[in-house]
Amino acid sequence: MKNTPYKWLHSSHWFLIGIVTFSIAFSACTKRSNSFLPEFIDPPTLQNLCDICFVNADTGFICGGDKYANGLMLHTYDGGLTWSLKDSVSPWILNGLSSKSNHIITCVGHTGKILNMPAHDSVPGVFQTFGWEELYAVQWTNDTLGIAVGGESYGAGILQRTTPQDSGVWHPQVFKHLLQDVQMVTATTGYVCGYGAVYKTVDGGKTWQITGAKGDFFKGLNFTSETVGYVVGKAGSILKTVDGGSSWQSLRNGNSLFNKDWRFNDVLFVTADMGFVLGDNGVFLRTTNAGKTWELSDYFNGNNM
Predict the structure, then answer these.
(1) CA 18/CA 184 separation, integer angstroms
(2) 256 burial class (0-12, 13-18, 19+ CB within 10 angstroms)?
């Protein structure tokens, strides 16, 4: 986005918030449809909203803000029907969030800040990572492993990793590519993606191997199992793997002159067959057959998601 295989939300209420814009398209395999329309609820702020996480059916959080001036959080305790604003949680924007089973919320953002906060407490604890690199996404796996990803713009990437033995201290790992998203499918197997690369770990994030995915600035990924997953890119590419990243199939080539200029930001599959891709300028795609064909909705016209 950006906690489980269904990384944006832990309930169906993510459709209630217009915080994201979806961009997806394919030339011959896309049709337009308004058969899957969400219900919009106006949030109590006009600042950027970046990520969303529900800790149970009723309690959820959204993070965002202004990059250089304010980090904010929204929270709901009624399943997304109403939202309240926690303003100035951080001096800078918060890009991603995740939660533990004990309802501890972790947020990451500009200048490498990592915030930890109980779900019903407005005062976060702050950890400042070494190097102050931007962090874009974070995930906890079974409360035993935390991974946050980021780096310098179009430069070296950074992965921050913590375990119970670290007592809340996050340790950096340096990558050759800027990192944008992370998903641990199990306690040992996971993936990160970024500028021109997708990496895989099979030892809980201790070591990472680059996969064969290439050709785009990959902004988001989502795996429905340890072996089946999707990655989307800023140039409009959608790739799929069925063998754990050993090989990748191009579902949409973002560099083709025959395809529309769409910029994708994230992907989510809620079942093995049904998934969504989102991005800039209001393009929102849905597939119900594991990416073979896609529907394009006109509902989010002009909004970036």
Answers:
(1) 26
(2) middle
